[in-house]
Specification:
Elements (H helix, E strand, L loop, with lengths): L3 E4 L3 H12 L4 E5 L22 E4 L5 H11 L3 H8 L1 E2 L4 E4 L1 H13 L4 E5 L11 E3 L7 H10 L6 E7 L2 E3 L9 E3 L9 E6 L1 H13 L20 H5 L27 E7 L6 E4 L8 H8 L10 E3 L2 E7 L2 H4 L5 E2 L2 E6 L9 H19 L12 H9 L27 H17 L5
Helix pairs in contact: 1-10, 2-10, 2-12, 3-4
The structure holds flavin-adenine dinucleotide.
Flavin-adenine dinucleotide binds next to helix 1, strand 2, strand 8, strand 15 and helix 10.
């Protein structure tokens, strides 16, 4: 059998290659790293997390928690590696990013049905089955090739940002403490308080600090889910106190009272030697990040392992181009997966790679496709992405709004969400996932 060509060994591409290979289908996985790196990738390993090390909530009352559970039931490689390399983060699934990617790389490279071919892809193979999973930062030549494929359509884009990482030993723990909000779960976050006076000085500095030049950048082009902290700050003096600096449920053990504002740091590796500043995606110039963030008392001597960066993030107008299996309408041998399809987030990118590969495997085996129903998170996401009635298409995180309501009353939002998840898992249980 001719191998399926998978382009890009990120979260979607690695998952797709794995799903195909596990079904006995030969795969040629083409990845340009380490010969060529995107502006946000730093390591040679596959499935690299470009920013946060959190795969978000792991609870079934949350839609992304449901999506994870569905992926586990589909024998997802990405979920298996995430579970094996988790670091404590309250109700969220955060991972040791290096161990996580190393595990994915090892599984992929040692799989007898996968051949890894290193080097940048600039043209789409003219024949055979191809899954394009080259991500939101697809290299320029391939990006142009994809644009030529859809002359009627145009790429859409927004700006995305990554938060800085600091070393644990440089955090002043005399001015900070460990706790999770409302004491839920284990006390995994480092909480850095600010008084009202400190906050105001910080806010002033943040809103007037010098940004790195990003051609064509405008506040309007920023996706809400990953808005730079300085852009959010400019919306109003108190906005951050209702967002990433929210103090509720975080009383300072020294005073027993909630501070005026709290910056949280989340563990970024298993050893706990590196932390990321939660919600501090930024595109300030690097010296400005150091100057402004050092106004947070616990970070006054912070040592930066990596500064925040910002990039253009590109995706297709999928509702007009793709079907519910992420296939190009009218040219089904070509499929897209991952963030380039407009799904937003690590887990969502994985889910699209998983579904695309499962469909392709079935097709090659001459079996009917698995139609994930809208009641499941995997199905709801794919149906949204391919819904031609969606006009102003924007990147989409999985959320319960994409899944049909229950049709009966359940008291309390958490209970209702749990019931929707239960129904999804029952629906998934009815499917033959082989
Ligand atoms: C700056 C930034 C920060 C983000 N932060 C978060 C976050 O904190 N949380 C979150 O959930 N999501 C985040 N996202 C969104 C998204 O979840 C990630 O981008 C995710 O990595 C997408 O997975 P993917 O598999 O589609 O692409 P990627 O993981 O980017 O994988 C694509 C792969 O294709 C390779 N490639 C690209 N072009 C070529 C080519 N021409 N030839 C061969 N290989 C190629 C790349 O090297 C890469 O390995 C962020 C995105 C960006 C851009």
């Amino acid at each position: 059998m001719e191998p399926v060509i998978v382009i890009g060994a990120g979260l979607a591409g690695s998952e797709a290659a794995w799903q195909l290979a596990q079904r006995g289908i030969p795969v040629e996985l083409r990845e340009m790293k380490p010969q060529k790196m995107t502006p946000a990738h730093h390591s040679a390993d596959f499935g690299e997390l470009v920013c946060s090390n959190s795969l978000r909530s792991d609870q079934l009352e949350n839609a992304v928690g449901l999506l994870k559970e569905e992926l586990r039931r589909c024998s997802s490689l990405i979920m298996a590696c995430a579970d094996a390399h988790r670091v404590e983060a309250g109700g969220a699934l955060a991972v040791d990013r290096h161990a996580f990617s190393a595990a994915i790389t090892e599984k992929i490279r040692s799989h007898p049905n996968i051949t890894v071919v290193e080097g940048e892809v600039t043209e789409i193979p003219a024949e055979g089955n191809v899954i394009l999973a080259s991500g939101p930062l697809t290299s320029e030549p391939l990006s142009q090739t994809i644009a030529r494929l859809f002359p009627e359509s145009k790429y859409l884009n927004f700006f995305d940002a990554a938060a800085p990482l600091v070393t644990f030993e440089s955090v002043d723990m005399d001015s900070a403490w460990f706790a999770s909000r409302y004491d839920r779960g284990t006390p995994d976050y480092i909480n850095c308080p600010l008084t009202q006076e400190e906050y105001l000085a910080f806010w002033q500095a943040l809103t007037t600090a010098e940004e790195a030049p990003v051609h064509g950048f405008e506040d309007a082009g920023v996706f809400e889910g990953c808005m730079p902290v300085e852009v959010m700050a400019r919306r109003g003096q108190d906005t951050l106190c209702y967002g990433p600096l929210k103090p509720v449920g975080l009383p300072d053990p020294k005073t027993g009272k909630e501070p005026f504002a709290v910056v949280q740091l989340r563990k970024d590796n298993a050893q706990g030697s590196i932390y990321n500043i939660v919600g501090f995606q930024t595109h300030l110039r690097w010296p400005e990040q150091k100057r402004v963030f050092s106004m947070i008392p616990a970070l006054k001597n912070a040592e930066y392992v990596r500064y925040g960066v910002m990039h253009r993030n590109t995706f297709l107008d999928s509702p007009r181009l793709l079907d519910r299996y992420y296939r190009v309408r009218g040219e089904e041998r070509l499929m897209f997966a991952g963030q380039i399809t407009g799904v937003e987030g690590y887990v969502e990118s994985t889910a699209s790679g998983c579904l695309a590969a499962m469909e392709l495997a079935r097709r090659l085996e001459g079996r009917p496709a698995i139609d994930f129903p809208r009641e499941t998170a995997i199905g709801a996401l794919a149906l949204y992405i391919s819904d031609p009635s969606v006009i102003n298409f924007q990147p989409m995180n999985i959320n319960f709004g994409l899944i049909p309501q229950l049709g009966y009353r359940v008291k309390g939002k958490r209970n209702k969400n749990a019931a929707i998840s239960q129904r999804a898992l029952e629906a998934l249980g009815q499917l033959d996932l082989t």
